[in-house]
């Protein structure tokens, strides 16, 4: 399997119009080839402003290309014209899952989550959730120490890591030696609680100390799930007849 992260930078004030276009044009019936593999759409709530992040899980590279081609029809020309007037920049990166099964609970072993039924149930109002996107950039070769450190974490610390974990991914196109982590939290305070518990763990602190000299850069953005129901499939079921 292969993952893709897309990031759209919108013109200031364009987010509301962007979501309205999704509701009109990209419904489960009209956008099904993409939504069948869409992990979620998110707006950046804290981090680079005016950004939309969307994630996909493809069977392979060709699967992604086929699905994109299936929705690039002449009938949708009006959508593409309208959407592009809202955009300042488009970026994409292909991702592989981390080489540690525990860091990809939805896509490892016998589990391969696909949209349909939510991966995380009974979350309440999904639009109130917070999704953290944590990025670490390493010097070439620095990831060896990083992955080995994860493998040596004790069970208590790994339980904290896995709380609300969506997945950990390695960038394979574009800026290499980059790792991206996604966690979901029920609120901003829960996100802060999770961060604090890791900081207070001696085992985690030793892990960070083992690799931090190999880190070039790091940053965290906080995202909110899309207000469009069928674009937050991690948390809500989808009605394909909509």
Number of domain modules: 1
- Low-pLDDT runs: none
Estimate the mean pLDDT confidence.
Answer: 96
Provide a count of the helices.
Answer: 8
Biggest β-sheet strands, sense, barrel: 8 strands, antiparallel, barrel
Question: What's the CATH topology name?
Answer: Alpha-Beta Plaits
Structural class, by secondary structure, is alpha+beta
CATH class: Alpha Beta
Reading the helices and strands in chain order gives: EHHEEHHEEEEHHEEHHE
The proportion of strand residues reads 25-35%
Coarse morphology? globular
In the sheet with the most strands, the strands line up as 1-3-2-10-7-9-8-4
What is the alpha-carbon Rg in Å?
18 Å
Helix content: 25-40%
The CATH architecture name reads: 2-Layer Sandwich
Structural features, described:
- This protein has about 240 residues and is α+β, with helices and mostly antiparallel strands.
- It has one domain: Alpha-Beta Plaits.
- Helix content is about 30%, strand content about 30%.
- The protein contains 8 helices and 10 strands.
- Strand 8 and strand 9 form a beta hairpin.
- The mean pLDDT is about 95.
Write the layout of secondary structure elements.
Blueprint: E1 2-10, H1 15-25, H2 32-35, E2 38-46, E3 51-58, H3 61-71, H4 77-84, E4 87-97, E5 107-108, E6 111-112, E7 130-138, H5 143-151, H6 155-162, E8 165-171, E9 178-185, H7 188-199, H8 202-211, E10 215-225
Antiparallel strand pairs: 1-3, 1-4, 2-3, 2-10, 4-8, 5-6, 7-9, 7-10, 8-9
